[in-house]
């Protein structure tokens, strides 16, 4: 039911879901509609769900902690809504998740360290969530990480190549990151795109990307 501009509540909480009484649904795509209000409390009961796409709606509520019980999820896309509150630590229980997109929402607080438990995740976007990053956590399979347009400060870790060794795309633009550009970025052998523009970085620019796979670098609007 993607792209039909449907609106209102997805289902009232007291609705009869007789067609899905066994909660055996594997794919739920309600993206690009005009759904609003809260997520239904029964959503966490669909334990067999593998793909949940609710992006590009007008949901305005905290993320349900019960979404962390959907342990078979491969894709979770809640981007471009009005979700608020904190990102629940329970998201770190989604051990099979490959793609996690929570971008363009209105979260508060820090990005939970429990996301470091997502060992199979290859794509993660938390851009434009107005969140803080307390500490970088190890994500050994991650290839794409987008944290643009947040409130992240501090420096880029010196051991980023050990923390996220398979990174191909890294976007940290429009934050408050300071310090120098670490040589750990040079050690990311698969890194092809790097955007750390519009921060407070200073010092020398490493001369180390000439022979690697790097295709796009944006270091503009720093110190």
Automatic annotation (TrEMBL):
Keyword Glycoprotein among UniProt keywords: yes
Annotated localization: Membrane
Chief localization: membrane
Domain of life: Eukaryota
Key words of the record: Glycoprotein, Membrane, Repeat, Signal
Pfam families: LRR_1, LRR_8, LRR_9
Chain segments annotated as transmembrane: none
UniProt keyword Membrane present: yes
InterPro entries in the record: Leu-rich_rpt, LRR_dom_sf
Protein name: Uncharacterized protein
Organism: Stylosanthes scabra
